[in-house]
Automatic annotation (TrEMBL):
Pfam families: APH (PF01636). GO terms for molecular function: ATP binding; S-methyl-5-thioribose kinase activity. It is an enzyme of class 2 (transferase). The lineage of its organism: Bacteria, Pseudomonadati, Pseudomonadota, Alphaproteobacteria, Hyphomicrobiales. Homodimer. It comes from Mesorhizobium australicum. Its EC number is 2.7.1.100. Residues 36-292 form the Aminoglycoside phosphotransferase domain. Keywords: ATP-binding, Kinase, Nucleotide-binding, Transferase. This is S-methyl-5-thioribose kinase. One of its GO terms (biological process) is methionine biosynthetic process. Gene3D superfamilies: 3.90.1200.10, Phosphorylase Kinase, domain 1 (3.30.200.20). InterPro entries: Aminoglycoside_PTrfase (IPR002575), Kinase-like_dom_sf (IPR011009), Methylthioribose_kinase (IPR009212). Belongs to the methylthioribose kinase family.
Length: 418
Protein backbone atom coordinates (compact mmCIF):
# COMPACT_ATOMS: atom_id res chain seq x y z
CA UNK A 1 0.00 0.00 0.00
CA UNK A 2 0.97 3.69 -0.19
CA UNK A 3 -0.02 4.38 3.43
CA UNK A 4 2.70 6.18 5.37
CA UNK A 5 4.84 4.19 7.83
CA UNK A 6 3.10 3.19 11.01
CA UNK A 7 4.44 0.88 13.68
CA UNK A 8 2.35 -2.27 13.99
CA UNK A 9 0.65 -3.45 17.15
CA UNK A 10 -0.83 -6.87 17.86
CA UNK A 11 -4.26 -5.28 17.33
CA UNK A 12 -3.56 -3.55 14.00
CA UNK A 13 -1.48 -6.33 12.48
CA UNK A 14 -4.28 -8.56 11.03
CA UNK A 15 -6.01 -5.62 9.33
CA UNK A 16 -2.73 -4.21 8.00
CA UNK A 17 -1.34 -7.47 6.57
CA UNK A 18 -4.44 -9.63 6.20
CA UNK A 19 -5.04 -8.79 2.52
CA UNK A 20 -1.66 -10.13 1.37
CA UNK A 21 -2.26 -13.39 -0.50
CA UNK A 22 1.29 -14.64 0.09
CA UNK A 23 0.50 -14.61 3.82
CA UNK A 24 -3.11 -15.80 3.93
CA UNK A 25 -2.29 -18.69 1.60
CA UNK A 26 0.38 -19.74 4.06
CA UNK A 27 -1.29 -19.33 7.47
CA UNK A 28 -4.99 -18.87 6.78
CA UNK A 29 -7.49 -15.97 6.94
CA UNK A 30 -6.72 -12.96 9.16
CA UNK A 31 -9.76 -13.63 11.35
CA UNK A 32 -7.83 -16.62 12.71
CA UNK A 33 -4.58 -14.71 13.35
CA UNK A 34 -3.23 -14.34 16.88
CA UNK A 35 -0.13 -12.13 17.29
CA UNK A 36 2.43 -11.69 20.04
CA UNK A 37 5.32 -9.24 20.11
CA UNK A 38 8.46 -11.14 21.01
CA UNK A 39 11.27 -8.76 20.03
CA UNK A 40 14.02 -8.89 22.63
CA UNK A 41 16.79 -7.47 20.46
CA UNK A 42 18.13 -3.95 20.64
CA UNK A 43 16.40 -2.40 17.64
CA UNK A 44 13.12 -3.73 16.22
CA UNK A 45 9.58 -5.01 16.68
CA UNK A 46 9.19 -8.75 16.10
CA UNK A 47 5.80 -10.46 16.03
CA UNK A 48 4.92 -14.13 15.86
CA UNK A 49 1.60 -14.45 14.04
CA UNK A 50 -0.23 -17.75 14.44
CA UNK A 51 -2.99 -18.52 11.94
CA UNK A 52 -5.16 -21.60 11.53
CA UNK A 53 -2.72 -23.19 9.08
CA UNK A 54 0.66 -22.05 10.37
CA UNK A 55 2.80 -19.24 11.72
CA UNK A 56 4.94 -16.42 10.36
CA UNK A 57 7.36 -13.84 11.71
CA UNK A 58 6.76 -10.13 11.08
CA UNK A 59 9.78 -7.96 11.74
CA UNK A 60 9.35 -4.20 11.58
CA UNK A 61 11.98 -1.52 12.07
CA UNK A 62 11.22 1.28 14.52
CA UNK A 63 12.39 4.81 13.73
CA UNK A 64 14.63 4.71 16.79
CA UNK A 65 16.89 2.36 18.78
CA UNK A 66 14.55 0.26 20.90
CA UNK A 67 17.21 -0.36 23.53
CA UNK A 68 17.63 3.38 24.18
CA UNK A 69 14.34 4.93 23.09
CA UNK A 70 13.18 7.79 20.85
CA UNK A 71 16.11 9.95 21.88
CA UNK A 72 18.27 7.86 19.49
CA UNK A 73 16.61 8.03 16.04
CA UNK A 74 17.56 5.30 13.57
CA UNK A 75 16.41 5.20 9.92
CA UNK A 76 13.81 2.71 8.79
CA UNK A 77 15.90 1.90 5.72
CA UNK A 78 17.81 -0.72 7.74
CA UNK A 79 14.94 -3.02 6.83
CA UNK A 80 15.81 -2.49 3.13
CA UNK A 81 19.39 -3.61 3.81
CA UNK A 82 18.22 -6.59 5.82
CA UNK A 83 15.90 -7.71 3.02
CA UNK A 84 18.55 -7.36 0.32
CA UNK A 85 21.13 -9.12 2.48
CA UNK A 86 18.78 -12.04 3.22
CA UNK A 87 18.14 -12.52 -0.50
CA UNK A 88 21.85 -12.53 -1.28
CA UNK A 89 22.76 -14.79 1.66
CA UNK A 90 20.22 -17.35 0.54
CA UNK A 91 21.55 -17.25 -3.02
CA UNK A 92 25.16 -17.56 -1.84
CA UNK A 93 24.90 -19.93 1.13
CA UNK A 94 21.94 -21.97 -0.11
CA UNK A 95 18.28 -22.38 0.74
CA UNK A 96 17.86 -23.04 4.43
CA UNK A 97 20.83 -20.95 5.52
CA UNK A 98 18.57 -18.00 6.43
CA UNK A 99 14.81 -17.71 7.01
CA UNK A 100 12.72 -17.68 3.84
CA UNK A 101 11.22 -14.25 3.05
CA UNK A 102 7.51 -14.23 2.19
CA UNK A 103 6.83 -10.50 1.87
CA UNK A 104 8.74 -7.23 2.05
CA UNK A 105 7.28 -3.71 2.37
CA UNK A 106 9.83 -0.95 2.04
CA UNK A 107 7.58 1.91 3.23
CA UNK A 108 6.44 0.02 6.30
CA UNK A 109 10.01 -1.20 6.85
CA UNK A 110 8.75 -4.71 7.43
CA UNK A 111 9.79 -8.19 6.41
CA UNK A 112 7.52 -11.19 6.77
CA UNK A 113 9.45 -14.40 7.01
CA UNK A 114 9.52 -18.02 7.97
CA UNK A 115 8.75 -18.84 11.60
CA UNK A 116 11.57 -21.10 12.72
CA UNK A 117 10.46 -23.79 15.11
CA UNK A 118 11.58 -25.45 17.35
CA UNK A 119 14.65 -23.28 16.92
CA UNK A 120 16.12 -21.21 19.75
CA UNK A 121 18.60 -18.37 19.69
CA UNK A 122 22.10 -19.84 19.81
CA UNK A 123 23.11 -17.54 22.67
CA UNK A 124 20.22 -18.89 24.76
CA UNK A 125 21.18 -22.49 23.93
CA UNK A 126 24.78 -21.84 25.02
CA UNK A 127 23.71 -20.16 28.27
CA UNK A 128 21.57 -23.20 29.01
CA UNK A 129 24.55 -25.49 28.45
CA UNK A 130 23.35 -27.01 25.19
CA UNK A 131 25.81 -28.03 22.48
CA UNK A 132 24.09 -27.82 19.08
CA UNK A 133 26.20 -30.22 17.03
CA UNK A 134 26.05 -28.50 13.63
CA UNK A 135 27.09 -24.95 14.37
CA UNK A 136 30.78 -25.18 13.51
CA UNK A 137 30.15 -26.81 10.19
CA UNK A 138 27.05 -24.79 9.21
CA UNK A 139 28.43 -21.40 10.22
CA UNK A 140 31.91 -22.09 8.84
CA UNK A 141 30.28 -22.87 5.48
CA UNK A 142 27.89 -19.92 5.75
CA UNK A 143 30.71 -17.47 6.28
CA UNK A 144 32.98 -18.88 3.57
CA UNK A 145 30.19 -18.92 0.99
CA UNK A 146 28.63 -15.53 1.72
CA UNK A 147 31.94 -13.76 2.22
CA UNK A 148 33.70 -15.29 -0.79
CA UNK A 149 30.75 -15.01 -3.17
CA UNK A 150 29.99 -11.40 -2.20
CA UNK A 151 33.48 -10.22 -3.10
CA UNK A 152 35.69 -9.37 -6.06
CA UNK A 153 37.06 -12.91 -5.85
CA UNK A 154 33.79 -14.15 -7.25
CA UNK A 155 31.48 -11.43 -8.60
CA UNK A 156 31.91 -9.53 -11.82
CA UNK A 157 33.33 -6.10 -11.17
CA UNK A 158 30.10 -4.43 -12.36
CA UNK A 159 27.83 -6.51 -10.11
CA UNK A 160 30.07 -6.13 -7.12
CA UNK A 161 30.36 -2.36 -7.56
CA UNK A 162 26.57 -2.11 -7.92
CA UNK A 163 26.15 -3.96 -4.61
CA UNK A 164 28.81 -1.87 -2.98
CA UNK A 165 26.77 1.20 -3.95
CA UNK A 166 23.47 -0.40 -2.87
CA UNK A 167 24.72 -1.10 0.65
CA UNK A 168 26.81 2.07 0.97
CA UNK A 169 23.86 3.95 2.40
CA UNK A 170 23.67 1.78 5.53
CA UNK A 171 25.60 4.59 7.17
CA UNK A 172 23.79 4.83 10.48
CA UNK A 173 24.14 1.15 11.33
CA UNK A 174 27.82 1.21 10.40
CA UNK A 175 28.11 4.28 12.59
CA UNK A 176 26.72 2.25 15.53
CA UNK A 177 29.43 -0.37 15.02
CA UNK A 178 32.16 2.20 14.42
CA UNK A 179 31.36 3.88 17.73
CA UNK A 180 30.12 1.07 19.95
CA UNK A 181 32.72 -1.52 18.95
CA UNK A 182 35.86 0.40 18.12
CA UNK A 183 35.73 3.67 20.04
CA UNK A 184 33.38 3.96 23.01
CA UNK A 185 34.82 1.08 25.07
CA UNK A 186 38.18 2.86 25.12
CA UNK A 187 37.10 6.12 26.74
CA UNK A 188 34.47 7.30 29.21
CA UNK A 189 31.68 7.43 26.61
CA UNK A 190 28.31 8.48 28.05
CA UNK A 191 26.49 5.24 27.14
CA UNK A 192 29.17 2.91 28.48
CA UNK A 193 28.46 0.75 31.48
CA UNK A 194 30.02 -2.19 33.18
CA UNK A 195 28.02 -4.13 35.68
CA UNK A 196 30.79 -5.51 37.88
CA UNK A 197 32.54 -2.91 40.06
CA UNK A 198 35.32 -5.52 40.39
CA UNK A 199 36.33 -4.44 36.89
CA UNK A 200 36.88 -0.75 37.72
CA UNK A 201 40.67 -1.09 37.94
CA UNK A 202 40.98 -3.15 34.77
CA UNK A 203 38.69 -0.79 32.86
CA UNK A 204 40.82 2.19 33.84
CA UNK A 205 43.92 0.23 32.76
CA UNK A 206 42.45 -0.65 29.38
CA UNK A 207 41.37 2.93 28.77
CA UNK A 208 44.92 4.08 29.49
CA UNK A 209 46.46 1.37 27.31
CA UNK A 210 48.04 3.20 24.40
CA UNK A 211 48.87 0.07 22.38
CA UNK A 212 45.31 -1.16 22.72
CA UNK A 213 43.80 2.15 21.67
CA UNK A 214 46.05 2.33 18.62
CA UNK A 215 45.04 -1.22 17.64
CA UNK A 216 41.34 -0.49 18.17
CA UNK A 217 41.64 2.51 15.86
CA UNK A 218 43.60 0.47 13.31
CA UNK A 219 40.81 -2.13 13.35
CA UNK A 220 38.21 0.62 12.96
CA UNK A 221 40.22 1.88 9.98
CA UNK A 222 40.09 -1.60 8.46
CA UNK A 223 36.38 -1.91 9.15
CA UNK A 224 35.57 1.43 7.55
CA UNK A 225 37.97 1.34 4.62
CA UNK A 226 38.24 -2.28 3.48
CA UNK A 227 35.08 -2.68 1.43
CA UNK A 228 35.89 -6.25 0.54
CA UNK A 229 32.65 -8.22 0.72
CA UNK A 230 29.02 -8.10 1.78
CA UNK A 231 29.17 -8.72 5.52
CA UNK A 232 26.36 -9.88 7.74
CA UNK A 233 27.68 -7.11 9.95
CA UNK A 234 26.36 -8.36 13.31
CA UNK A 235 27.14 -12.07 13.34
CA UNK A 236 27.04 -12.86 17.06
CA UNK A 237 25.36 -15.79 18.78
CA UNK A 238 22.14 -13.75 19.10
CA UNK A 239 21.95 -13.64 15.27
CA UNK A 240 21.79 -17.42 14.88
CA UNK A 241 18.87 -19.77 15.51
CA UNK A 242 19.46 -23.47 16.03
CA UNK A 243 18.09 -26.91 16.61
CA UNK A 244 20.28 -29.99 16.78
CA UNK A 245 19.58 -30.51 13.09
CA UNK A 246 19.45 -27.00 11.65
CA UNK A 247 21.25 -23.65 11.81
CA UNK A 248 19.85 -20.36 10.47
CA UNK A 249 21.47 -16.97 10.38
CA UNK A 250 19.06 -14.11 11.06
CA UNK A 251 19.07 -10.30 11.37
CA UNK A 252 21.52 -9.02 8.74
CA UNK A 253 20.38 -5.39 9.05
CA UNK A 254 23.99 -4.25 9.65
CA UNK A 255 24.95 -5.61 6.21
CA UNK A 256 27.46 -3.56 4.24
CA UNK A 257 30.73 -3.94 2.36
CA UNK A 258 33.54 -4.46 4.84
CA UNK A 259 36.43 -6.81 5.67
CA UNK A 260 35.87 -10.57 5.49
CA UNK A 261 37.55 -10.98 8.87
CA UNK A 262 34.89 -8.93 10.67
CA UNK A 263 32.07 -11.51 10.59
CA UNK A 264 34.45 -14.34 11.47
CA UNK A 265 35.99 -12.41 14.37
CA UNK A 266 32.65 -11.36 15.82
CA UNK A 267 31.32 -14.92 15.79
CA UNK A 268 34.41 -16.45 17.38
CA UNK A 269 34.48 -13.69 20.03
CA UNK A 270 30.99 -14.68 21.08
CA UNK A 271 32.13 -18.29 21.51
CA UNK A 272 35.08 -17.21 23.67
CA UNK A 273 32.68 -15.13 25.75
CA UNK A 274 30.34 -18.12 26.10
CA UNK A 275 33.40 -20.11 27.21
CA UNK A 276 34.32 -17.63 29.96
CA UNK A 277 30.67 -17.18 30.99
CA UNK A 278 30.18 -20.95 31.37
CA UNK A 279 31.70 -20.90 34.88
CA UNK A 280 28.91 -18.53 35.88
CA UNK A 281 26.18 -20.88 34.71
CA UNK A 282 27.33 -24.10 36.27
CA UNK A 283 24.72 -24.14 39.05
CA UNK A 284 26.43 -27.04 40.81
CA UNK A 285 27.00 -28.93 37.55
CA UNK A 286 30.50 -28.38 36.19
CA UNK A 287 30.51 -27.53 32.51
CA UNK A 288 33.90 -29.00 31.65
CA UNK A 289 32.58 -30.81 28.61
CA UNK A 290 30.79 -27.71 27.39
CA UNK A 291 33.87 -25.54 27.80
CA UNK A 292 36.04 -27.98 25.86
CA UNK A 293 33.34 -28.23 23.21
CA UNK A 294 33.17 -24.43 22.81
CA UNK A 295 36.91 -24.29 22.17
CA UNK A 296 36.60 -27.09 19.63
CA UNK A 297 33.74 -25.17 17.95
CA UNK A 298 36.11 -22.23 17.56
CA UNK A 299 38.83 -24.27 15.84
CA UNK A 300 36.34 -26.31 13.82
CA UNK A 301 34.52 -23.18 12.60
CA UNK A 302 37.78 -21.68 11.43
CA UNK A 303 38.88 -24.97 9.82
CA UNK A 304 35.59 -25.35 7.95
CA UNK A 305 35.74 -21.70 6.87
CA UNK A 306 39.34 -22.14 5.74
CA UNK A 307 38.62 -25.34 3.78
CA UNK A 308 35.50 -24.02 2.07
CA UNK A 309 37.06 -20.65 1.26
CA UNK A 310 40.00 -22.53 -0.28
CA UNK A 311 37.68 -24.78 -2.27
CA UNK A 312 35.80 -21.74 -3.62
CA UNK A 313 39.10 -20.06 -4.44
CA UNK A 314 40.14 -23.07 -6.52
CA UNK A 315 36.80 -23.61 -8.24
CA UNK A 316 34.89 -20.29 -8.32
CA UNK A 317 37.49 -17.55 -8.58
CA UNK A 318 35.77 -15.76 -11.42
CA UNK A 319 36.11 -12.16 -10.25
CA UNK A 320 38.84 -9.72 -11.13
CA UNK A 321 41.02 -10.40 -8.06
CA UNK A 322 43.87 -12.92 -8.45
CA UNK A 323 42.44 -13.86 -11.84
CA UNK A 324 43.12 -17.31 -13.29
CA UNK A 325 44.43 -15.60 -16.42
CA UNK A 326 47.34 -14.29 -14.35
CA UNK A 327 48.01 -17.53 -12.49
CA UNK A 328 46.71 -20.94 -13.61
CA UNK A 329 46.29 -20.07 -17.30
CA UNK A 330 49.95 -19.14 -17.41
CA UNK A 331 50.91 -22.47 -15.94
CA UNK A 332 51.61 -21.20 -12.44
CA UNK A 333 48.98 -22.72 -10.14
CA UNK A 334 51.39 -22.46 -7.22
CA UNK A 335 51.18 -18.68 -7.43
CA UNK A 336 47.40 -18.88 -6.94
CA UNK A 337 47.94 -21.15 -3.92
CA UNK A 338 50.52 -18.77 -2.50
CA UNK A 339 48.10 -15.86 -2.93
CA UNK A 340 45.34 -17.88 -1.22
CA UNK A 341 47.57 -18.57 1.78
CA UNK A 342 48.41 -14.86 2.00
CA UNK A 343 44.71 -13.86 1.84
CA UNK A 344 43.72 -16.43 4.49
CA UNK A 345 46.67 -15.41 6.67
CA UNK A 346 45.51 -11.79 6.63
CA UNK A 347 41.93 -12.82 7.39
CA UNK A 348 43.20 -14.87 10.36
CA UNK A 349 45.23 -12.00 11.79
CA UNK A 350 42.47 -9.41 11.40
CA UNK A 351 39.80 -11.82 12.62
CA UNK A 352 41.66 -12.12 15.94
CA UNK A 353 41.72 -8.33 16.30
CA UNK A 354 38.01 -7.96 15.58
CA UNK A 355 37.31 -10.72 18.11
CA UNK A 356 39.31 -8.84 20.72
CA UNK A 357 37.40 -5.56 20.44
CA UNK A 358 34.04 -7.35 20.23
CA UNK A 359 34.81 -9.00 23.59
CA UNK A 360 35.65 -5.64 25.10
CA UNK A 361 32.60 -3.80 23.87
CA UNK A 362 30.21 -6.43 25.21
CA UNK A 363 31.60 -5.88 28.71
CA UNK A 364 32.50 -2.18 28.68
CA UNK A 365 30.11 -0.59 26.19
CA UNK A 366 26.39 -0.06 25.75
CA UNK A 367 25.25 -3.42 24.36
CA UNK A 368 26.02 -6.32 26.68
CA UNK A 369 25.68 -10.09 26.34
CA UNK A 370 23.18 -12.15 28.30
CA UNK A 371 26.01 -14.72 28.68
CA UNK A 372 27.62 -12.49 31.30
CA UNK A 373 24.60 -10.38 32.33
CA UNK A 374 22.69 -13.41 33.54
CA UNK A 375 25.39 -14.45 35.99
CA UNK A 376 23.60 -13.34 39.13
CA UNK A 377 26.54 -13.45 41.54
CA UNK A 378 28.43 -10.20 41.03
CA UNK A 379 31.91 -11.38 42.02
CA UNK A 380 31.68 -14.44 39.82
CA UNK A 381 30.38 -12.36 36.92
CA UNK A 382 33.25 -9.93 37.37
CA UNK A 383 35.79 -12.77 37.38
CA UNK A 384 34.37 -14.23 34.15
CA UNK A 385 34.31 -10.82 32.47
CA UNK A 386 37.84 -10.03 33.61
CA UNK A 387 39.18 -13.15 31.84
CA UNK A 388 37.40 -12.18 28.64
CA UNK A 389 38.81 -8.64 28.85
CA UNK A 390 42.32 -10.04 29.19
CA UNK A 391 41.96 -12.38 26.25
CA UNK A 392 40.41 -9.54 24.21
CA UNK A 393 43.40 -7.31 24.91
CA UNK A 394 45.82 -10.05 23.92
CA UNK A 395 43.99 -10.71 20.64
CA UNK A 396 43.71 -7.05 19.67
CA UNK A 397 47.30 -6.08 20.50
CA UNK A 398 49.24 -9.24 19.66
CA UNK A 399 47.25 -10.57 16.74
CA UNK A 400 50.14 -10.32 14.27
CA UNK A 401 52.21 -12.70 16.40
CA UNK A 402 49.55 -15.35 16.96
CA UNK A 403 50.08 -18.40 14.79
CA UNK A 404 47.16 -20.72 15.66
CA UNK A 405 43.83 -20.95 17.41
CA UNK A 406 45.16 -23.67 19.70
CA UNK A 407 47.59 -21.07 21.01
CA UNK A 408 44.64 -18.74 21.77
CA UNK A 409 42.56 -21.53 23.25
CA UNK A 410 45.43 -22.57 25.53
CA UNK A 411 45.61 -19.02 26.85
CA UNK A 412 41.82 -18.99 27.31
CA UNK A 413 42.08 -22.16 29.41
CA UNK A 414 44.92 -20.70 31.49
CA UNK A 415 42.94 -17.51 32.14
CA UNK A 416 39.82 -19.50 32.95
CA UNK A 417 41.67 -21.65 35.48
CA UNK A 418 43.70 -18.82 36.91
C1 LIG B 1 22.32 0.33 19.66
S1 LIG B 1 22.42 -1.21 18.94
C2 LIG B 1 23.52 -2.11 19.90
C3 LIG B 1 23.93 -3.38 19.30
O1 LIG B 1 22.81 -4.20 19.00
C4 LIG B 1 22.99 -4.82 17.74
O2 LIG B 1 22.67 -6.17 17.80
C5 LIG B 1 24.43 -4.59 17.36
O3 LIG B 1 25.28 -5.60 17.88
C6 LIG B 1 24.68 -3.28 17.99
O4 LIG B 1 26.05 -2.98 18.15
MG1 LIG C 1 20.23 -7.99 15.62
Amino acid sequence: TDAPYQALTIDTLPARLGSIDALTSRIGPPASWRSREVGDGNLNLVFIVDGERGSIIVKQALPYVRLVGESWPLPLKRSFFEYHALIRQEARAGKGAVPEVFHYDETQALIVMEFLTPHVILRRALIEGRMPPRIASDLGLFMARTLFRGSDFSMTARERKADLALFADNVELCDITENLVFTDPYFEAPLNRHTSPELDGMVAELRADRDLKVEAQALKHLFAARAETLLHGDLHSGSVMVTDADTRVIDPEFAFYGPIAFDVGMLLANYWMAFFAARGHEGGKPRDEMRAWLLSVITDTWNVFHAEFSRLWRTERKGMLYASSVFEDRGDPLAAEQALQRVLGDIFTDMLGFAGVEMHRRILGLAHNADFEEIAEQKLRGACEMRALKLGRHLAVNRRHIRSLSEVNELAVRLDEG
